[in-house]
Amino acid sequence: MDGGGRIAQPLNSSSDGLRFATPSSAWTSVFASLSGPNRKPATPARRQRTAASAAQFKLGRITIAPPALLTKPGIGTALALLFLLGTASVSLVQSGQYAKFAADSGGIGDILARGLGLGVKAIVITTDNGMTPGQILPATGITQLSSTLFLNADAIRTKLLALPRVKQAAVRVLFPDRVVIDIQERRPFAIWQDQGKLSVVSADGTPIETASSRRWAGLPFVVGPQANMQIADFARLIAVAPTLKAQIRAGVLVSGRRWDLKMANGIDVRLPEHHAKAALKALALLEATSHVLEKDVLSLDFRAPGRMVARLSADAYSARVEALKKKKSKGLGNPT
Q1: Phi and psi dihedrals of 165, rounded to 5?
Q2: C-alpha 174: how far from its chain's center?
Q3: Quick one: which of 159, 85, 156 has its CA closest to 120?
């Protein structure tokens, strides 16, 4: 950590750092100045052929450079390395061993770039919710064999956005040898159960990870196909009855349109598709005044407008029937 919440991830030390300070325009002057005292005067056709030779400069092509250029620091070494690597690459391709060579040492371009001091020496990672370099770096594809010259910041960002926990990502390649990655994470918002599988999801419904830890037990719990995509609506729903929140064990999405609440004591509360918040407020009032959730009931149904239908347990139903019989018997014995 560098004190600012950033993690510097060093890679192995780079090579001896060959210098290549010649401007790119020097190549044109190289080929244009190849005519010596024993050469014919440069005609327009000859200048055109010379320019074409400069444009065709490729890895592995042998090119004669003037002594004045070769005396500049590092140029001779760089050209020699270029020639050797070009020759080696042709041999490897012909022998079918290039793929193994690239896996062990990197591509020819990366090897050259590392030799010129453009290897990746450090990766600075900033996250906002605890993701580790070990969770981020493999997705970038950056290794000790990479070079900053051939890194594609947009491609790396696309790979990072494919990680479930990554909401936003910014990638900057800073020459000569540093990469900076800023990550904005999705935060755990709820637990979603579908077909027996438990997942931690963010507020936008994206599954982040498997809910295999008890540390997520305090999050809202929703059940059913596509329930994760309506988790924000469910959170707003239960927020209208804070006194009931501790008693709500889970929300079950029914037909993608309405919610049933599973209470901690096993009672099912069936909410209507429309005006669900008003029904939940009515339940909170009934609990506060008559402790309805402590009664011997199986379910409370609020789907009929302005009514609540209670379904009694078998024992409660039998007791209720006996009570009604006694009440009716007493009523018949009294004069009217």
Answers
A1: -80, -10
A2: 23
A3: 156
Q: Label each residue of the chain as H, E or C.
A: CCCCCEEEEECCCCCCCCCCCCCCCHHHHHHHCCCCCCCCCCCHHHHHHHHHHHHCCCCCCCCCCCHHHHCCCCHHHHHHHHHHHHHHHHHHHHHCCHHHHHHHHCCHHHHHHHHCCCECCEEEEECCCCCCHHHHHHHHCCCCCCEHHHCCHHHHHHHHHCCCCEEEEEEEEECCCEEEEEEEECCCCEEEEECCEEEEECCCCCEEEECCCHHHCCCCEEECCCHHHHHHHHHHHHCCCHHHHHHEEEEEEECCCEEEEEECCCCEEECCCCCHHHHHHHHHHHHHHHCHHHCCEEEEECCCCCCCEEEECHHHHHHHHHHHHHHHHHHHCCCC
Domain ranges of the chain: 18-115, 122-185, 190-319
pLDDT of residue 8: 52
Q: Is the peptide bond before 305 cis (omega within 30 degrees of 0)?
A: no
Q: Does domain 122-185 have CATH number 3.10.20.310?
A: yes
CATH topology for the 190-319 domain: Rossmann fold (3.40.50)
For the stretch 212-240, pLDDT in tens is 878 888 899 999 999 999 999 999 999 99
Bridge partners, residue 123, by sequence: 9, 179
pTM of full prediction above 0.70: no
Check pLDDT > 70 for residue 210: yes
As given in the structure block, the two tokens for residue 225 are 């196909």
